[in-house]
Amino acid sequence: MSILDRGEHLKNICLVPYEHLTLGLKFNFRVGQLTGRDVLVVTCEECHWTSNVAPHVLYARYHDYTKVMQVQRDMVCKKCGRKGDLAWRVERATGPEWPKLA
Ligand SMILES: [Zn+2]
Question: Is residue 100 included in any domain, yes or no?
Fold first, then answer.
């Protein structure tokens, strides 16, 4: 199963304010740098299909030190089938810090 199949589970994420996270060195950005507040937004520039990928989905499939640029090669557009060069960006939830249980 592709990581992009999980996007449907994140529909409610739109209820939370998100801001575009500016990455200093996007090419070197690694899976392990994603926090629980982040979501990887994948967009197909060909057909404008988009999907949100939660960090835990990436953690389950890739090592922390895997570059997201490498993950990008595995991404496939579910609409038109375009592969390998889908655009991606990281968005981080904003808002109050909630007390942690652990
Ligand atoms: Zn597409």
Answer: no
DSSP class of residue 30 equals: B
Domain span at residue 56? 3-93
- Whether residue 85 lies inside any domain: the answer is yes
Indicate whether 75 belongs to any domain: yes
User: Cα(85) to centroid of ligand 1, in Å?
Assistant: 10
Nearest alpha-carbon partner for 88 in 26, 34, 37: 26
Q: 51-102, pLDDT tens digit by residue?
A: 999 999 999 999 999 999 999 999 999 999 999 999 999 998 887 766 666 6
Residue 98 lies in a domain: no
Q: Give phi and psi for 76, each to the nearest 5.
A: -125, 130
Task: Give residue 50 CA to ligand 1 midpoint distance, Å.
Answer: 8
Q: What is the pTM of this model?
A: 0.76
CA–centroid distance, 97 to ligand 1, in Å, is 36
Gap from CA of 53 to ligand 1 centroid (Å): 16
